[in-house]
Amino acid sequence: MTDQEVVDLLRDAYNDEIETVMNYMTNAIVLDGVRAEEIKDSLQQDIQEELNHAQQLGERLKQLDARPPGSAEFQMRQETLQPPEESTDVLSVIEGVIDAEESAVEMYRELASKADAADDPVTEDLAVTILADEEAHRTEFRGYRKEYRAD
Fold this sequence. Notes:
It is built from 4 helices and no strands. The protein is mainly alpha-helical. It has one domain: Ferritin, CATH 1.20.1260. Helix 1 (3-30) packs antiparallel against helix 3, helix 2 runs antiparallel to helix 4 and helix 3 runs antiparallel to helix 4 (121-150). The longest helix is centred in the C-terminal third of the chain and has 30 residues, at 121-150. The protein is elongated.
């Protein structure tokens, strides 16, 4: 296990957090309808938390003598979190958020494991802390999905 693997995962996680912010913001803007308001509010609240995650990841990269990626290095991967064609398609946004959160959960579990193997308890602790936030977001949106499917 090399420290470079941990750095690469930190950079990937930073990239994903920034992409999530962009997609949450866009979806919170474009969704329409009375049923969309609760989802929009939740996305707005999560934007700040995702930005905080990116900030923490960037700071950790700096501490490891690395740097977070700039915009030219970004790789956009969140296909299912793109804004829907129909602005009232709230369920597609909910599904996209769940997909993004599941990817984040996998990423932070892998980062925690690799950091542990690299004897990097600071990064491991950061990954576990962010993992808990991502699992909470996923649970929240799974609840929204249940409500929407029940209607």
